[in-house]
Amino acid sequence: MRLDGKVAIVTGAGGAGVGGLGVVYAQALAAEGAAVVVSDVDGEAAVRTAESIASTGAQAIGVRCDVTSGEDVDAMVRAATDTFGGVDILVNNAGLARGKWSEALILSAEEWMEILAVNTVAPIMCAKACRATMSGRGGGVIVNQSSNGAFIDAGAYTVSKLALNGVTKVLADEFSDDNIRVNGIAPGVMTAKLPQEQVERLLARQTIRRPGQPQDLVGLLVFLCSDESSFMNGQTVVIDGGMARITK
Ligand SMILES: NC(=O)c1ccc[n+]([C@@H]2O[C@H](COP(=O)([O-])OP(=O)(O)OC[C@H]3O[C@@H](n4cnc5c(N)ncnc54)[C@H](O)[C@@H]3O)[C@@H](O)[C@H]2O)c1
Fold it and tell me: What is the distance in A from the centroid of ligand 1 to the CA of 93?
């Protein structure tokens, strides 16, 4: 129970998408003793996930929040404060994943703004919204969900996640006076729900030749959220079966 007494927000944790990494993150933080605010633009999915975590005896609430809306983000932080007394951990997991975002030149200006709003700017706004409560509690931890796609050609997605790694560095510096550490996780492909032919192509690029599972990320997440990483700040750790090492 390395996070006993802590309060964590995980964005994009409803589980309505294909990867569902936010759900696994919320479950993992709850299993370590944190009270968890499960947040997602799909409010019903957020509540379902929170209820399933609460059914294990942990503390969890579900909140609808579009991370690109300032009002929603403020309401999410207020819900955490009203229910659990404040925020210690923010996991900026919500993101627009690949698909059409893997291409740069087909996207319109509006689509560029959309992916950058969700993947790059929203983590800054969520961090800003949590700063006062974290500071009031003596400090906190922010984890930004990047991707090994930051280092491998994946169109607009690459741009948004590489920029997010920059956000991690900048926030680590700017929030250091409040004892708030900011680090990132850059996963590889963490879903078994891909066509076999695509899985084989990806495995050939990895040095560890098995598909990644969301559970592969949990040890790193808990490490970054706990005092075990108290001397680490501004870093984004790649965890992708050794794929980015080849193509970086
Ligand atoms: N799954 C992977 O293999 C993988 C690999 C590397 C990085 N990532 C990153 O991990 C994160 C989660 O990915 P996933 O695969 O679990 O995706 P997912 O689609 O399963 O989950 C993303 C969640 O974000 C929510 N969301 C989307 N826009 C939102 C918004 N504006 N406000 C709030 N919530 C919003 C969706 O409703 C969904 O529940 C993303 O940031 C993604 O880029 C995923």
Answer: 6
